[in-house]
Amino acid sequence: MSLEASIQSLISRLETVTSRLEDVEKKVAAGASHSSLPASSSNTPASSGSGGSDHPSVRAYDDLVSQYVHQYVELSAKIAPEVKQQAELFQKAIESQRKMIILATQAKKPSDADLQAIIKPTSDLMQEITSLRDKQRTSKFFNNLSTVSEGVGALGWVVVSPTPGPHVGDMRGGSEFYSNRILKDFKDKDQTQVDWVKAYNGFLKELQTYIKNFHTTGLTWNANGGDAKTLAQSGASSAPAPAKAPTPAPSATTTTSTSAPKPDITNVFSAISKGTDVTSSLKKVTDDMKTKNRKPEERSSVVTADSSKKPAVEKSEGPAKAVSKPPKLALEGNKWVVEYQKNNREIKIAETETRQTVYIYKCEGSTIQIVGKINTIIVDDCKKTAVVFENVISGIEIVNSTALEVQVIGKVPSIAVDKTSGLQLFLSKETLDSEIITSKSSDVNVLIPGKKEGDDPIELPLPYQFKTLIKNDTLVTNTVEHV
Predict the structure, then answer these.
(1) What is the pLDDT of residues 361-379, one digit of tens each?
(2) How far apart are alpha carbons 122 and 213 in whole angstroms?
(3) What is the DSSP letter of 110?
(4) pTM for the complete prediction?
């Protein structure tokens, strides 16, 4: 963390303390340290206990936000307008979650239906954050937007039981897939980007510690408190957040709404709030089921709603999106965009330059051939598609795809595979020293040339099952071998 960022974080924490002291001074001056409480919750006297913004769990949450989130928002404003806009939405989601934590200190645990209504403001903001990323796929800062959209699902911990901490860890893992790219690209080049990653990842990491200390098995509610729905409607939990370091205030322009149909993320919270019952309807994953992959709008959370509950929505939204987008093959600046191609096996990009990239998105049953040398290839959310290319300077990234065939004719130094199932990776002799990185993927096979000319390719499956043991206070992990 830079010296400037450290000083800014210290100033922010001092302002937080000053704000709390001013609140105490006002209460003492008004002589209302006790009498003011019933006035704000006359219908629910049980809630006028030790809850509210002075509760230890709320103060700890404020410290966490002050230390990491404020810095993340400030740094986002320095990177790009779209990153700033997403950060402002994230800050709003944090403020919304703070209100819910305050509410939990004042109220009894609500019913599942009331809980969904209470969490809706936060889930709507989470949906906006993910929607913003999906609209900016051609952005130069797509990795920043993806880091946040993949990690924002961590805010769903408030309805996870009995393991909210590990849920945050899962979200953090998906987020770091993209933040590691940022560190790789900007290390020793742009300290703002490095500090941005540290601030956001630091929040997710310490959020897990915070949950462990105050909400180990789920959001802690006040057993002697009032009715959560009544308190939420009366605004009893809307205590102002402590003063923070100067940041651009979220404005109406940041709360964008889209006309395109988007999934209601409250379904995610509905499933999460079941706790251990959320896995009761799961079935063993067989080979014919592995081609089912998450859609882009579902990436904001690892825990997804049971598809059997809303079959009509699932069946109607998918085809509608496929029909509404025409096929696209175009050069936009230095980026070749290949989108929504279906059953087209004659796509060829021949006029290439070393500074250009190729972005392949939502293609199905198609073949894309790339001639010459380019900088980067990204294959995102494709199905039953083949990609054949000659030489790549940086690397190829394959994300959220199923049943792919990728063939390297020349050379590529790095191959990254994330959330992909059923990949056949054909390597040339020049590519045998390439680095292959996989994450949350299965059925990935690497085929290398035979030892002699004319020999069949040698097929090597990449392991995706691991066994971990604890030995001498350290973790020892090995691949699982099937006899």
Answers:
(1) 999 999 999 999 999 999 9
(2) 22
(3) P
(4) 0.50
